[in-house]
Write a structure and sequence with these properties.
The complex is a heterodimer of chains A (446) and B (310). Chain A contains 17 helices and four strands. Chain A has helices at residues 2-16, 18-38, 64-76, 87-96, 109-114, 130-157, 164-179, 182-190, 196-221, 246-275, 277-282, 288-318, 326-350, 354-372, 383-389, 393-405, 416-441, and strands at residues 53-58, 80-85, 101-104, 122-125. A four-stranded mixed beta sheet of chain A has the order 2-1-3-4, with helices on both faces. Chain A is elongated, with a radius of gyration of 29 Å. Chain B has 310 residues and is of the alpha/beta class. Chain B contains eleven helices and 14 strands. Classes of the chains: A mainly alpha (446), B alpha/beta (310). The interface between A and B is medium-sized, with 23 and 31 residues.
């Protein structure tokens, strides 16, 4: 009963203290709202969720038959909305801000590429859209590096490929292929027994293809794996085939803000100590552990409230789907908040004073956010770092929310993240209770 | 009601409370007088069960502090030096919270809160946030919060620090009323005027040790019940003054302090005309004459060699 009295007092103070209320709820909500808009999200789903980055592509001499599949492929990622155009139109669109960036291949791109000559791809960026244009530039840079690496590996493994005579035959054949001269190729293929030159070219090409495939396979077996889950939207209101990026970003933002909010609440232990209210509470006829439980319960309650508001706002404003596994979502919201409370209460008890705790929590939050996937996607971190991430409660919180919001899977399909959050919540709570009693006995909280 | 015997509290090698002993009767208002850092708050913290002692014993209301701290806690209330309130809540919220924490509820709590608001003269401001209160109002609320569960013993740790004379006077009035109502009070202060005005008995504490205990008259008697007559006198006349002093019936000695001569006499009223006559005889003017009767300040000075405000 007295635990409830203590927790209720903290929650009442939170609401009555405007500053604390703004920090814990309104600021995260506003930042989430702005971030949603900055990703191009339409309010109330009017633009079908978070839109992809608009990009103009200038073809150079790339054959038409490759253009549409390439644009479709980019669109399917959910990250880009590509449109083929000419140089003048691309420049105009970038200037107007109609596209975030234009990727311009030179007019003789194909010819120079297959002649092993240097090729420069230009990325024109809209200065008003630095972030999105930067993403496009980074993607193009990575693609270029990938092609260069493949080419270098290919030539190293099969040096005869660099033979100018053999290559010239391949290039002549490829030139006709990309020029759309299929009739001539088909005619020659059908009469290949009478055309030793074409036969040679064909063999070189097929050998090259085989080797390229072998190289790709070898690289994949070397530990670099890419897994793409192609999930088609189902049912009514299925967002017109667009991926809602906010399903990923909303929980990562929410968990990040949760850490700050719960840390502020746990810091109150030191404020109460400095003001003398903690000493007064210690004189009340109740167990010292009840004081800690009351604070822990209030911090958890505040976390549940904040996460609920942010998720509901995400659901209403940006059509984040909260209905796939609602019970699991609620459970994870609660476990995530209790785990955060236990972690930051531990930091409060390990800190000698408020200032020390401020510094400690800032470091812990920023490092946890970086390693746990709240600042950058975990896929971008090296393997050894993601091993460390598993020691952060927010890593498991992010995993849980992604399972529910992105994969539409309840806790039952992968209970591990929920079990870890449960263990962190109540395991650390037990440690906190022991530590609190120890500090009270030693007079360390007086 | 309270018996403290040879109480010790150490922080490392430093003895913050060093063998303190005293007793307080039921309904008595006992003052712990000493400068900042003398060990008053530490003594109160030990007696409130917030700190564990490193030696000695204390019995409060028949319960041993070491073996029955829970029973002791039920008897005591504390008003700490800090404003130990939730300033972002109202006075009513604060009193209700502390009342609930002590197990009060329903009508009992409601009546008790109304009674305490009335006592603190805060009924009209009961629903204002405490952060909007003046220093005196906060101090009054801080005091009545310590009474919410009707304790038998109240520890008041410098409850008038940082407030103006008018607000202080109001607080002291409240404390007198409480004591008059039968509450046992231990009152710590470094303001000797408060101790003199309020307390039935006073314990003088310095560097963790209790250097004197008794009522005001007993304490003053300890320094010999002497008056001090001070005035300006040239250095070359000191020997002559000492000779004269030996002839006067109540003169007990002559000294010099802070540029003035001090003549210790049994009765100031009797000795003053003799001193004035001697000065005229010597052809010296009567300059900056002071007559001090013994008080707690002189007691503290004589016991510790320093002033309370040093």
């Amino acid at each position: 009963m007295q635990v409830i009295v203590l927790a209720f007092k903290d929650l009442k103070r939170m609401v009555s203290d405007r500053k604390s209320f703004v920090i814990s709820l309104v600021v995260p909500f506003l930042l989430t709202f702005i971030m949603g808009l900055s990703f191009g999200g339409g309010l109330f789903g009017k633009t079908g969720g978070i839109s992809a980055i608009p990009v103009a592509l200038v073809a150079g001499d790339l054959p038409d038959m490759l253009k549409q599949p390439l644009a479709d492929g980019l669109a399917e990622t959910g990250f880009f909305q590509a449109t083929w155009t000419d140089t003048a139109q691309a420049a105009a669109w970038v200037k107007e801000g109609a596209v975030a960036a234009a990727v311009v291949l030179p007019a003789d791109f194909t010819e120079r590429f297959f002649s092993y000559e240097e090729v420069a791809i230009e990325v024109w960026k809209d200065p008003a859209s630095q972030l999105k244009a930067g993403i496009v530039e980074e993607v193009i840079r990575r693609l270029v590096v990938l092609v260069q690496a493949n080419e270098a590996a290919y030539v190293t493994l099969w040096p005869e490929t660099a033979d100018p005579v053999e290559n010239q035959k391949l290039e002549d054949w490829a030139e006709k292929f990309f020029a759309g001269d299929f009739a001539d190729i088909w005619q020659r293929v059908r009469r290949s027994d009478q055309n030793s030159e074409l036969e040679t070219v064909g063999q070189v090409f097929l050998t090259g293809m085989d080797r390229q495939m072998a190289l790709v396979q070898a690289l994949q077996e070397g530990g670099i794996t890419l897994s793409v889950d192609d999930k088609a939207p189902t049912g009514e209101g299925a967002n017109d085939g667009q991926v809602n990026l906010f399903n990923y970003f909303l929980p990562t933002f929410a968990v990040f803000f949760l850490m700050f909010s719960v840390a502020a609440n746990c810091r109150d232990l030191h404020r109460e100590r400095a003001s003398g209210t903690l000493q007064r509470q210690l004189l009340a006829p109740l167990r010292p552990g009840s004081l800690l439980l009351g604070k822990w319960l209030a911090a958890s309650g505040q976390g549940v409230f904040m996460l609920s508001v942010l998720f509901l706002a995400g659901g209403i404003l940006y059509r984040v789907d909260l209905t796939a596994a609602p019970l699991s979502l609620l459970t994870i919201v609660i476990l995530c908040s209790t785990a955060a409370s236990s972690v930051f209460m531990l930091l409060a008890l390990l800190s000698p004073n408020e200032k020390y705790m401020d510094n400690l929590t800032t470091v812990v939050i920023l490092v946890s956010a970086m390693l746990g996937g709240n600042m950058v996607p975990l896929d971008n971190l090296p393997g050894w770092m993601t091993n460390i991430s598993q020691f952060m409660f927010n890593y498991w919180a992010n995993q849980s929310f992604q399972n529910i919001l992105m994969e539409s899977q309840g806790i039952g399909s992968d209970p591990r993240p929920a079990l870890v959050l449960f263990g962190v919540s109540f395991g650390l709570l037990a440690v906190n209770l022991v530590l609190f009693r120890w500090r009270v006995r030693r007079g360390g909280l007086i | 009601m309270i018996t403290v015997n040879n109480l010790v509290k150490k922080y490392g090698s430093h003895r913050a409370v060093d063998g303190v002993s005293f007793a307080v009767s039921r309904g008595e208002l006992f003052g712990l007088l000493g400068p900042n850092g003398a060990g008053k708050t530490t003594t109160i913290s030990v007696l409130a069960t917030l700190l564990k002692s490193d030696g000695g014993a204390a019995v409060i209301g028949g319960h041993d502090l070491a073996t029955a701290p829970d029973q002791v806690r039920r008897l005591i209330g504390i008003v700490p030096q800090e404003i130990a309130l939730y300033t972002d809540l109202t006075a009513r919220d604060n009193l209700e919270f502390w009342g609930r924490l002590h197990g009060l509820g329903g009508k009992v709590l409601k009546n008790r809160v109304a009674e305490l608001l009335e006592m603190a003269d805060l009924t009209e401001q009961a629903n204002q946030k405490v952060e909007q209160y003046s220093g005196g109002m906060k101090r009054r609320l801080n005091l009545v919060v310590g009474l919410v569960h009707s304790p038998e013993v109240l520890y008041l740790d410098e409850p008038t620090v940082g407030i103006d004379a008018q607000a202080r006077s109001r607080i002291l009035e409240m404390i007198k009323q409480l004591s008059g109502g039968g509450l046992t009070v231990i009152y710590t202060t470094h303001y000797l005027e408060e101790a003199e005005q309020l307390c039935d008995r006073i314990g003088v504490i310095d560097k963790g040790k209790m250097v004197a205990v008794g009522d005001k008259e007993e304490l003053i008697h300890q320094i010999g019940n002497e008056d001090l007559i001070r005035f300006i006198l040239p250095e070359d006349k000191m020997a002559a003054l000492e000779e004269a002093c030996a002839q006067w019936p109540s003169c007990r000695g002559v000294g010099r302090r802070r540029g003035k001569v001090e003549v210790r006499v049994g009765d100031g009223a009797e000795s003053l005309p003799l001193i004035q006559a001697w000065l005229q005889e010597q052809g010296l003017p009567l300059s900056q004459l002071e007559v001090d009767r013994p008080n707690l300040e002189t007691l503290y000075l004589s016991l510790t060699g320093r002033s309370l405000r040093e």
